[in-house]
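During the reporting period the student researcher (J.K.) took over the structure-prediction task from the postdoctoral fellow and processed the backlog of single-chain submissions. One of the processed entries is reproduced below for the supervisory committee.
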Amino acid sequence: MTIANYTVTGMTCGGCASSVRKAVDGLDGVTAIDVDPGTGRLTITSTAPLAESAVIGVVSDAGYAAAPLR
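J.K. obtained the following structure tokens:
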């Protein structure tokens, strides 16, 4: 199991968080997603590490910007 954290900019409400959650849920291996629009934090739990570019890509396609937290 792998946990990855990202900062997502552009989210302002629960609807935004839902859009991000739906986009990330489409990635293979994702087992849990936590999105907090107040802090802009996205936490993804997956069965194996996800490519950062894949996460950033699906979040971007949903209309937001993501960057990994280190």
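The committee noted the following: The CA atoms of residues 7 and 41 lie 5 Å apart.
J.K. will present the remaining backlog at the next meeting.
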